[in-house]
Amino acid sequence: MNGKEAAARTPDDARVDGAAAGRTRGERTPGERTRLERGRGALGPALELVHTGRAPTRAVLTSALGVTRATAGAVAAELESLGLIRVDARPAAPAGSHGRPSHRLALDPEGPVVLAAQVHADGYRAALVGLGGRLVATSPGCEMVGADPADVLGSVVAAGLALLRETGRRCVGAGLAVPSAVAEPEGTALNPLHVAWPAGAPVRDIFAAQVRAAGLDVPAFAGNDINLMALAEHRHGAGRGARHLLVVATGHRGVGGALVVDGRPHTGSSGLALEVGHLVVRPGGHPCYCGSRGCLDVETDPRAFLLALGRTPGDSQLREAQDLVTAHGEDPAVRAAVETLTDRLGLGLAGLVNILNPDRILLGGLHRTLLTAAPERLHAVVADRSLWGRSGSVPVLATALDRGSLVGAAELAWQPVLDDPLAVLNG
């Protein structure tokens, strides 16, 4: 805090700070309770600011919320009493600075968690995720997905329940990422093309039933894995600050895409928007599950890469393809396959740039590996084939989160807490 800020401090601020050291956690003076009542509507927005790393100090929180320092202090104290954040009232001042530094705000590392689950073509995984997208515990991955979604989701919830028992953490929600478009409001998986589930399986209801059967009285949610990856990247990864963020990624099979506009995933009228995997990039190419040929889904995914090398795809196709690019990138055959898939991917991205005009593109899965292996080639194809790409104003970057879909599934479960912390945690 500079000299002007110190001079502007109110008597209420001084009393709040002076009393803080002598109170146990959760106790509030009558004045603080009054300010909290005025600022209660700011609890959710304040938590989201800390959750996404946009309010590291009370001064920043005060400015972002547009409230007084006293009200921001009361809001921060309430979030701390709920076990969601920690407030450092006596942070060390940086060397050479003048005045008292603002209170530091951090997420409570011992706070509640949500159960996050992901199902993909090569198996499933469960995790406990705290605020800020922090993975608290992760189960070993299973490498088999059966044809009955209830059996699979029961197993992944059981894995999450084991993590909760091991850690002793409080669970406040559950979120599921699946490799399918999820229709809303029904919560049904319309086209689980890469797992042997029936079309229209009510995955959200099945997941919620398994969560209840495990004894967890928490809300449960489900969404498309790439949509959730995009949401996680926007809040915690390489998509921070983008207003129109396009994410294109390979799953363990196939290709998905998502658009986040002003912080919210664009899912269309019923949750089915942006099936970018079925954009044709090679007319007459491989037959696609959608009935067409040459779609991004079958021309740029791990299976397509292995086929371009003349290899028979095995069980762990994503890992095998990435390992080949990383460890054998100078091999002429591998290099040729990289260039082939990069050119096809670039064509697809160029078409999406022309239609969507994003301000940032993130690539995940095998596409992230291709970008690392041939960045100039990919950027050149996008620039040559798109109106807006020619200006060089559309950055194409790698996703930053290693388990983005799991973190995104957790974001679904955290959203009710971000909307109304008091109602969820004290309800």
Automatic annotation (TrEMBL):
Gene3D superfamilies: 3.30.420.40, Winged helix-like DNA-binding domain superfamily/Winged helix DNA-binding domain. Residues 1-16, 24-40 have a biased composition (Basic and acidic residues). Pfam families: ROK. Residues 1-43 are annotated as: Disordered. Transmembrane segments: none annotated. SUPFAM superfamilies: Actin-like ATPase domain (SSF53067). Belongs to the ROK (NagC/XylR) family. PANTHER family: BIFUNCTIONAL UDP-N-ACETYLGLUCOSAMINE 2-EPIMERASE_N-ACETYLMANNOSAMINE KINASE, ROK (REPRESSOR, ORF, KINASE) FAMILY. This is ROK family protein. It comes from Streptomyces evansiae. The lineage of its organism: Bacteria, Bacillati, Actinomycetota, Actinomycetes, Kitasatosporales.
